[in-house]
Amino acid sequence: MDDTLLLVHTEADGSLAKIAREALGAARSLGGSLTIGLVGGDAQAAAGSLGGCGAARFLGASGEMFRQPRYATDAAAAEALCRASGAQLILAPATSRWARVLPGVALRLGGRVDTHATRVFPSEGAPAIARWYYRQRMEAVLLRPQRPWIVLLEAGCHPAWTGAPASAALENVPVDLPEGAIRTTVNGLRAPQAEEQTIRPEADLLFVAGAGWTKKQSDGATHADDAERLILEFLRRTQASLGGSKSLVDLSGEGQAVLRCMTHLNQVGQTGATPRHPKGLSTCCHGEEPHVVGWRFIGERRAVNLDPNCGWARGKADVLYIADAFEVLRRINALLGEKTQATRA
Ligand SMILES: Cc1cc2nc3c(=O)[nH]c(=O)nc-3n(C[C@H](O)[C@H](O)[C@H](O)COP(=O)(O)OP(=O)(O)OC[C@H]3O[C@@H](n4cnc5c(N)ncnc54)[C@H](O)[C@@H]3O)c2cc1C
Description:
28% of the residues lie in helices and 25% in strands.
């Protein structure tokens, strides 16, 4: 197996994100010699948190100028760590910080880069990766003869390493920073406007709301206020992550907001997101292919729809309840409320 460098960076609070620990889990599963390269304000503290992982070396680009994401400093630090490690395979979590920088680093090193990898594994003594194409419809396995090979591993694809912290001897790697490298500073973060944070990548359940919530119901009227109240109560009680069909999020964009907490970032599907959750529950959504293709990485799928001929009935869901989602959610919320009261008593 190739010698591997795991390249991670610290978060704003100095910790390492779960996705970094997942990439570490994947790197360890490869066998072969492992070096960890850390970039951040205090790489020594971060190295200690991974101290028990069995890496042969810990290399660091540490200091105030590496605390914030910045192309010039991140690229220089990553390049220096890659060169110092001499590794042929460089594995990194697919954070936005690394996704922006590492393709450029591959060019500087005369190597190659692959993004959106979902697996990395040994194949006849060499590393191989898997990734999906055509919006998760086809999976390919890739091998490359060129080295160094940088691979960005997606979140939620490998169990995170959960070992205990231990002392780690960090070797500080000098980084040659070009003039003007720290001209850019991050002044703040701007998040999309939403009354409530509803996208929870770590949640066990993805709850999807479709346009049916806005349609005329059996009494000939629409019940958007009811829909919003029921859905928000369900989300609060379960801490599920909220997804939407394109039809529903487009309605929000047109100013007919049904769910004020729903933005285009919630859209699941071909032109939306492909989130990873163990379970998914779709409600009032037809289950058309461009939507369901975003469910590729949902473990167990259930749907509630009035129409027994909806798309979910055609092998796209494990369980389809032919039922009125308003009634179903009302009942589930009541049961969840009883459960909370019983826990308190
Ligand atoms: C190029 C392209 C890309 C696309 N990308 C995406 C994408 O990324 N994501 C996406 O979602 N779509 C995408 N679409 C659109 C997609 O094809 C569908 O139009 C969309 O998913 C339909 O949304 P919906 O199922 O919520 O709405 P509808 O098709 O209107 O379905 C509403 C459903 O609600 C049910 N319903 C109504 N009332 C109730 C009730 N009380 N209880 C239970 N069920 C009820 C109805 O039976 C119906 O099945 C794309 C389309 C194209 C052409």
